[in-house]
Design brief:
This protein is an alpha+beta fold. The chain has one domain: Spore Coat Polysaccharide Biosynthesis Protein SpsA, Chain A. The protein contains six helices and eight strands; from the N terminus they run αββαβββαβααββα. Strands 1, 3, 4, 5, 6 and 7 form a six-stranded mixed sheet that branches. A two-stranded antiparallel ribbon has the order 2-8. The chain starts with a helix and ends in a 5-residue tail after the last helix.
Length: about 160
């Protein structure tokens, strides 16, 4: 397990099917995480359709009030914030205490383990979980179609991956 490699440091997890821009945003995210002495910081981005994502309900201070993974539209409705759905972008900052909760996480939807279930367990048990709203560009590149679309959009702006 990564626990021995990470030691006592906070660490970042980035899902492999995401592309973020600008890269310097990581400094801002880490500063946000440290300033709040967060156990977990979830980087969030608004989405129109919540069904493919982990969706988060936050308050005006960025405190996470609830998380649901790949909800139906009915399940997602209570998670709207300011008439928007905020998805977890696949960029998360953790304290190493997350490993204690990973071991306690039960199988979730589709009989799979979900990191969002671990974070929700942490929230329920009193950990400090915050959402950071990412204002840059985020591309979901989890399918060939979405990767090609992201590449086309970047080329139109004169920039390449």
């Amino acid at each position: 397990m990564g626990r021995s490699f990470i030691g006592s440091e906070d660490f970042v997890v980035i899902y492999g099917d995401n592309y973020f821009k600008p890269y310097k945003t990581m400094r801002d995210i880490l500063a946000f995480h440290r300033s709040r002495e967060a156990d977990v910081t979830l980087v969030l981005h608004p989405v129109e359709d919540p069904r493919r994502f982990g969706i988060v309900k936050i308050d005006t201070e960025g405190n996470v009030l609830g998380i649901i993974e790949k909800p139906t539209l009915e399940e997602a409705e209570p998670f709207r914030t300011n008439n928007q759905y905020f998805s977890i972008t696949g960029l998360l900052v953790f304290r190493n205490s997350v490993f204690d909760y990973i071991e306690k996480t039960k199988l979730g939807k589709n009989n799979e383990y979900w990191l969002t279930d671990t974070v929700e367990l942490m929230r329920i048990r009193g950990s400090k979980i915050f959402g950071y709203i990412f204002k840059g560009k985020r591309y979901d590149i989890g399918t060939l179609e979405s990767l090609l679309k992201a590449d086309r959009l970047e080329q139109m702006e004169g920039e390449l991956f």
